[in-house]
Amino acid sequence: MGLVISRNDQVFRSTNYLVDHTRDVLEKAATIFSITTDIETGTRGYVITGDSSFLEPFEKSKNIIYYQVVKLRDLCIDNPAQQRRIDSIGNLINKRVGFALQTVKMRNECGFEDAQLMISTREGKSYMDSVQTLFTQFRNDEINRLNGQKEANQRSIIAFNRASYALLIGAIILLISVALVIRYYLAARTRAEEKLLYHSYIISNASDAIIASDMNFNITVWNTAAERLYEYSKEEVLGKPAFEIVQTEHRTLSDKEGAIKKVKETGEWHGELTLITKSGKRIPILSSVSTITDRNGKTIGFISVNKNISGG
After folding, report:
1. What value does the mean pLDDT take over residues 204-217?
2. From edge to edge, which strands make up the β-sheet containing 268-276?
3. d(Cα 312, Cα 210) in Å, to the nearest integer?
4. What is the distance between the alpha carbons of residues 79 and 147, in angstroms, rounded to a whole number?
5. Could you confirm whether domain 2-171 is CATH 1.20.120.1730?
6. What is the CATH number of domain 206-308?
7. Residue-wise pLDDT tens digits, 224-236
8. Where in the chain is the domain with CATH 1.20.120.1730?
9. Per-residue pLDDT for 136 more than 80?
10. Is the pTM value of this prediction over 0.85?
11. What is the pLDDT of residues 172-199, one digit of tens each?
12. Where do the CATH 3.30.450.20 domains begin and end in the chain?
């Protein structure tokens, strides 16, 4: 939203600059036309009356009009078409001033009738009409250019706002989607943690001894029933090799080798054993050994469920 406001502010400032620039140009053009009119009026007044006071505004205007034309040209430095039009206006003004000087000279040297006859040729009026036509074209071009730029700026604002709002809506949709995905995975993680806690609770509170180990036979799970049966606490055995803690006796050596072979080949073994506890007691158990696999079916450890069948 801040980007939209910033962009609109830039376009607003640009439009204001164009409005101010066009106003300055039109004011300068109006000043030049007014001065040109003063030249014509002063000359005509002097020819008719012979009063030299009419020449004062003429002389003043003649001295400043060319400076004003240069200033107008500078204002239109970025508009070649208007500069060409200003050059044409400048040439016409130069001719109009020259005709005015000739008229004044004729009045001074030959009198009113000859000067009036010179004015009646309408040469001066022709120059003024051409100047007025060019100024009208100049003014219309500036106004049309300003209006065109305003419309372009307005279209730019509309297009930018639409794109920005579309981007904003897209961002909102994306954020909602991300939030939903995060919520889904958090929920899934919570369910998985709850499932793990549930399984941990079951293992911890099972009546049979449950022992798990990794592929190096280091103990990873040792439940409460295992603590009671083997007389080792969980803290004593976790991370240690199972063969150092879990002491068992098979009926024969071949029975032990056969059990190990079957676990490797089929992934499980069931049979009776005699375990030796921490204190040296011998207890008959029914043991069930299985492999633990990951989601790809790769063996990652072993689990043993041992049930005391001594009846004691």
Report:
1. 85
2. 219-222, 209-214, 299-308, 282-293, 268-276, 247-249
3. 19
4. 15
5. yes
6. 3.30.450.20
7. 989 998 989 999 9
8. 2-171
9. yes
10. no
11. 887 787 777 778 877 777 776 666 566 6
12. 206-308
